[in-house]
Amino acid sequence: MSRMEFPQQGLPGLKVLDEIKALKTGDSDWKNGRVFSLVFNAGDEIKQFAEQAFDIFLNENGLSPFAFPSLLKMENEVVAMMIDLLGGGEQAAGNVTTGGTESLMSIVKTARDYARDKKPHIKEPQLVMPLSAHPAFNKAAHFLGIKTVIVPTDTGSVVDLDAYRSAISENTIMLVGSAPSYPHGIIDPIEEIGRIALEKDIWFHVDACVGGMVLPFVRMAGYEVPPFDLSVPGVWSISADIHKYGYTPKGASIVLYRSSELRKYQIYVYADWPGGVYATSSVAGSHSGGGVASSWGIFRFLGREGYTRLAGLAMQAALELQKGVNGTPGLHVIGKPLSTVFAIGSDTLNVYALGEKMKARRWYIDSQQMPPSLHMTVMPEHVKIVGSFLADLREASAETEKLKPEDIGGEAALYGMIGSLPDRGAARDIAVQFLNDLYQLH
Ligand SMILES: *Cc1c(COP(=O)(O)O)cnc(C)c1O
Hints:
The chain is an alpha/beta fold.
């Protein structure tokens, strides 16, 4: 018997909308700055603007540049504005995608097809990436039949350049660096990797998915940011998520190539279909035009000035939070993040248990591993909660210090167990089982 029947009769719309709203009440409260990932919050005015712009193209389909010339024009202009922001030259080209994962899937596919064309001797393509790079690369490589070679990082999440160099072989089709990395907010040594890329003539992608819409403005706000974009010699392509620090609703990211010749390898064509010549530059098929419209709109709504003000606020909150974390007994910030993203680590406390204690105080902070840490993506709205967050963090860490190992249960215990399993295959199996159970009515 099925667990829920498909409804026979329709219900009044308002009643159903109320039901949907009621379902949200148990969710984490990002609007009041109690979440440090997933939803990028720059306040109501900006959110409402971005939603309205999105809404105008909610139903239009980004699949067809012919039916909706307006979307094509806006996409080309969004790309041009991002080329301007991220140091691309006259030849640069790119596309808007539906998110970071699609951007990285596109880039890895493009680099693979470029290598097939230009380096046909490569039969088993490999991608070299630091341990801290985003798993969307592993996912893309898995989908595309490419091997990943992971370069270790030190306790400050800094990649070892000698190890990076040794990880490169004649099968390497792409080098990866992050600006910054998602787990710890560390900017990889982009100029140094760029030099290696030039010397060995290998594609180098900078993943600025989280940083691309904030680092340029952090710099304009007066902070030191090392060179990380297309202007760095050796960088071939860059990705930036507009639905993160660009503050659009989900469904907007960008890929940029140093030349449109490279972008040709991104385009997929099936010319023999009765439905027509099927040609797309995206991985996604049908998708809302909202992402493009919202990006175009919000760039013009905020401008460099607005984004710089917001980046200044996020940096201010991030630095105050980092100072408070380092001042809390037993806790420290991992490495030296030069951005609005950082991680809370500890040599003495169980940070997963600390996360649970914070959750009991209605702060939602993601757990990370290798080493155990808590993830902090800091947004402009967080300036309002710095004081109350740090007060709760001090209390929660004092409570965590008193915990005996046998008191640590629930998610904290599960996460600790999975993180410390020496057999990573077993860790994967547990995660598969867990997700498979999660996505079912019980
Ligand atoms: C968020 C992120 C991604 C993946 O982006 P999605 O939009 O979640 O698909 C990739 N790389 C980095 C560095 C990120 O922060």
